[in-house]
Design goal:
Layout: H1 2-23, E1 29-30, E2 36-37, H2 42-59, H3 61-64, H4 69-89, H5 95-126, H6 129-138, H7 144-158, H8 164-179, H9 183-201, H10 209-217, H11 229-244, H12 266-285, H13 292-324, H14 338-343, H15 348-353, H16 357-376, H17 378-390, H18 392-403, H19 408-418, H20 424-436, H21 446-454, H22 461-465, H23 468-485
Antiparallel strand pairs: 1-2
C-alpha cells in the first residue's frame, strides 16, 4: 500500500513537472546570445500550428475561393498577441514591440516599392503598351515554333523590369491566341513562358519579390545580380530546347486584329518608369538610402503626368463643345478621339486601385507571421538544422525545392531573417534557387498560378508535371553553371563582394 502511495506521488510529481514545463512562462529556454527562445513553449507550438493552418488555407485558395491574405493576416495578429503575452510573463514588455516594429518596417519598404511598380505597370497597360505588343505578335503570321521561342524570349527579358506575373499573363495570351484549339502547343508554350519569366526575374532586383527583398536587405548589390544572368539563361534554355521538340513548325491560321494606336503619353510613361528604376538604384547605391525612396519619387512624377493628361483631355472636351456651338478653333480637330474623351476623366488613382491588393496584404501577413516565428526562436532552430547540419549548398538547393511547394516569399524572408553566415556565392545561389525553383511545379510561382487561371482546363497542374523532369534538368544545370562561372564568389565572405 505504501509503495502504491509513493508511486502515485511520483506520478503526480512527474505530471505536474510536465505541465509546468509546457505552461509555466519561467520554463522558456535562453539561446546562445542570451535572448529567450520559446520553441518548446506552449505559445511556440500554438503559433506554429496557427501558421501551418493559415498556410494550408493559402494553398487551397483556388478550391476554397478564399483570398490568400485573409488567413495569414488573422494568424499574424494572434501570433504576435501570444508573443507579447509570453514576453510580458517574463517581465519583458519591450522586445515584442521592437520586434513587430522591425517587421512592419520591412513590410512598409516592400509595400511602397511594389505599390509604385504596380501603378506604373497598370498605367502602361491602360495606355495600351502591352496590347500593342500582343497584337503585333499575333498578327505577324509567325509559325508555332517561332511564337514558342519569341514568347519565351520576351518573357525572359521583360520580367526583369516588369514583374514575372504580368509578363507571363501577357505572353500566355499571345500563345493562346495563336495556338487556338491546338492544346498541345498551348500547354508547352505556357510552361516555357512560366519558366522563362521566373528565370528572367532571378537576375534582376525588379524581376521577383525574392530578389527585391535580397537587394533591399543589402545582401547583393544591384550590379552583382547580373552575375546570375548566364545561370538564369541556362535554367530557361535547357527545358526550352527539350520542349521545343514537341512543337511543330506549322503555320497557324492567320489572325487579323486591328492595331490599336497607343494612347497619348504611352511612351512617356515607359520613359518615366525607366527613370524611376534608375532613381531607385541610385538612391540605394550612391545615396545609401532605401530604394523605395526613388520609387515613390518616380510615382510622384507619374501623378504629375496624370494631372497633365487629365487637363489635356478636359481642354479637348472644351474645344469639342465650342465646335458644337459653331465656334471651332482653327487647326484643332473637330472631335476628340475616344482615348481623348477618356483622358478628360483620367485619374491616376484608378491605376493604384487596380494594384494587387490581396497580394500586398498577403505579404503583410507572411512577413509578420514569419517574423513572429523568428522572435519565438524557430528561425534560429531552422538555420541550425539547415545551414549547420546540411551545409549551405544543400540548404540553398533545398530552398529552391521548397519554393515549388510553398511560396518562395516566406521561404526567402525566413532565410533573410536567419541570415546564416555563408559566402557571397552562396547568397547568390539561394537567390537563384528561390527565384527559379518555383518553376518545377505550376503552383510554385505566381506566374504559374496566374497562367493556370488564364488557360483553365488546358494548362493544368498535371500538364506541367509531365515536363517537370526537363525543368529539373534546367534547375540542376543552372546551379552547376553558377558554381562553374562564379567560383571566386564562394571564397568571398558575405558582404565582401
Amino acid at each position: 500500500m505504501r509503495h502504491t502511495i509513493e508511486n502515485k506521488k511520483q506520478a503526480l510529481l512527474y505530471l505536474g513537472t510536465t505541465l509546468l514545463t509546457l505552461l509555466a512562462p519561467s520554463m522558456a529556454a535562453a539561446s546562445a546570445d542570451g535572448t529567450l527562445s520559446f520553441t518548446d513553449h506552449w505559445a511556440g507550438y500554438l503559433s506554429l500550428i496557427l501558421f501551418v493552418l493559415a498556410y494550408a488555407l493559402v494553398i487551397g485558395e483556388e478550391s476554397l475561393h478564399l483570398r490568400k491574405s485573409k488567413p495569414v493576416i488573422v494568424a499574424a495578429g494572434i501570433i504576435w498577441a501570444l508573443i507579447a503575452i509570453v514576453f510580458a510573463q517574463h517581465g519583458d514588455t519591450h522586445t515584442a514591440e521592437e520586434a513587430v516594429k522591425h517587421n512592419l518596417l520591412e513590410f512598409a519598404e516592400l509595400f511602397l516599392f511594389l505599390l509604385a511598380a504596380m501603378t506604373y505597370i497598370n498605367t502602361m497597360e491602360e495606355r495600351g503598351v502591352f496590347d500593342s505588343l500582343r497584337i503585333w505578335l499575333v498578327s505577324r503570321g509567325f509559325s508555332l515554333r517561332t511564337i514558342y521561342w519569341l514568347t519565351g524570349l520576351l518573357a525572359f527579358f521583360i520580367s526583369p523590369v516588369a514583374d514575372n506575373l504580368t509578363t507571363a499573363l501577357l505572353m500566355a495570351t499571345v500563345a493562346m491566341a495563336v495556338g487556338g484549339n491546338n492544346s498541345r502547343f498551348v500547354v508547352v508554350a505556357c510552361i516555357n513562358i512560366v519558366v522563362a519569366a521566373n528565370a528572367g526575374g532571378a537576375f534582376s532586383p525588379f524581376g521577383d519579390i525574392t530578389t527585391l527583398m535580397v537587394w533591399q536587405k543589402g545582401v547583393i548589390a544591384f550590379h552583382e545580380f547580373f552575375d546570375l544572368f548566364i545561370p538564369s539563361v541556362v535554367n530557361w534554355l535547357v527545358p526550352a530546347i527539350i520542349m521545343s521538340l514537341a512543337v511543330s513548325n506549322a503555320q497557324p491560321e492567320p489572325i487579323e486584329e486591328g492595331e490599336p494606336p497607343l494612347k497619348h503619353g504611352a511612351m512617356v510613361v515607359v520613359g518615366l518608369f525607366v527613370l524611376t528604376i534608375v532613381m531607385a538604384v541610385c538612391a540605394h547605391n550612391f545615396l545609401h538610402l532605401p530604394p523605395v525612396l526613388g520609387m515613390m519619387t518616380g510615382l510622384g512624377f507619374l501623378k504629375f503626368y496624370g494631372y497633365y493628361l487629365k487637363r489635356r483631355g478636359e481642354a479637348i472636351e472644351d474645344r469639342k463643345h465650342l465646335g458644337e456651338q459653331g465656334m471651332q478653333i482653327e487647326g484643332e480637330p473637330e472631335a476628340p478621339t475616344s482615348h481623348e474623351k477618356t483622358d478628360a476623366h483620367y485619374n491616376i488613382f484608378h491605376a493604384m486601385e487596380r494594384a494587387e491588393w490581396d497580394t500586398l496584404m498577403f505579404f503583410y501577413g507572411i512577413i509578420l507571421c514569419v517574423g513572429g516565428l523568428g522572435t519565438l526562436g524557430y528561425l534560429s532552430l531552422a538555420s541550425e538544422l539547415m545551414y549547420t547540419d546540411l551545409g549551405a549548398t544543400n540548404a540553398n538547393i533545398l530552398v529552391g525545392l521548397l519554393s515549388s511547394i510553398v511560396d518562395n516569399i516566406p521561404v526567402m524572408f525566413a532565410v533573410l531573417s536567419m541570415y546564416p553566415e555563408m559566402s557571397h556565392g552562396q547568397w547568390m545561389l539561394v537567390t537563384l534557387t528561390a527565384g527559379v525553383g518555383g518553376s518545377l511545379l505550376s503552383i510554385g510561382s505566381a506566374a504559374g498560378v496566374a497562367v493556370m487561371g488564364q488557360a483553365r482546363g488546358i494548362y493544368t497542374f498535371f500538364a506541367h508535371l509531365k515536363w517537370t523532369w526537363a525543368i529539373a534538368l534546367g534547375y540542376a544545370a543552372s546551379i552547376w553553371v553558377h558554381f562553374l562561372i562564379n567560383e571566386p564568389l564562394f571564397k568571398i565572405p558575405a558582404g565582401g563582394g
